[in-house]
Amino acid sequence: MDIKDYIASGILEAYALDDLPQEERAAVETMLDKHPELREELNAIEEGLEALAMETAIAPPSGLKDNLFAALDKEHTQEVEETQPETKVIPLAPKKSYLWNYVAAASISIALVSSFMAQDFYSRWKQSQAAYADVINSNELLANQNNKVNRLLDQKEKDFAVLANPDFGRVDMASVIEGQSFAASVYWNKKTEEAYLSIQNLSNLTEEQQFQLWAIVDGKPVSMGVFDLEKDVLTKMSSIANAGMFAVTIEPRGGSVNPTMDAMQVAGEVG
Q1: Facing residues of 201 across strands?
Q2: Model pTM?
Q3: Of 155, 153, 152, 49, whose CA–CA distance to 110 is shortest?
């Protein structure tokens, strides 16, 4: 946490005025122990509040000092006279000093106003912190969405380059299971031996399963890699030469050395 921002938040003023809940007071005290500069700032705040109270104190009425000493002299005279039984004593009520009453009243008023201002500032600071966090989260969400869109556009651009390249021939693979509409295609460049897979419709798999693409070369199956079900994009597979047929089987996750023939989904010959 930035110490300057912490001081500017007004929480030290609220602490000095004893206007914080116990939990927040404990947190402030922890910060005071860790950061000596905060303790110095708190001392300065307390000294400032005391000085402000004295500066704004109402001056006592003129002549109060003389009246006070006169009352004390009379009180002393009364005590002397009380030692003489025959003398009638008329007690005089001592006059009260209002100096500290004025100071106390001014201090309380200042404390109340300062407490309200500190609490209001602290509340606004907490609200601004929450709003700032919301803005950060929104920006991160927009950035993630923007990155996702950019990746999708890049993928579509690459896919279009393959589809528009006349060197890539399309090999359609139809369902080998009667009654099913499974379908997929391989875009294969015989010159560069590159191959891309396009899925139209295949079975839904469990987490322990994956699809595996095979090429039949000279009558033998050659693995071109495993893949998950992802439609509307071209998936780059392993390069292959001299393929006469392509097929897709369902295998354990990670693939198999040899195809599981009874788990074949689609197959198609190279034209």
Answers
A1: 183
A2: 0.47
A3: 49
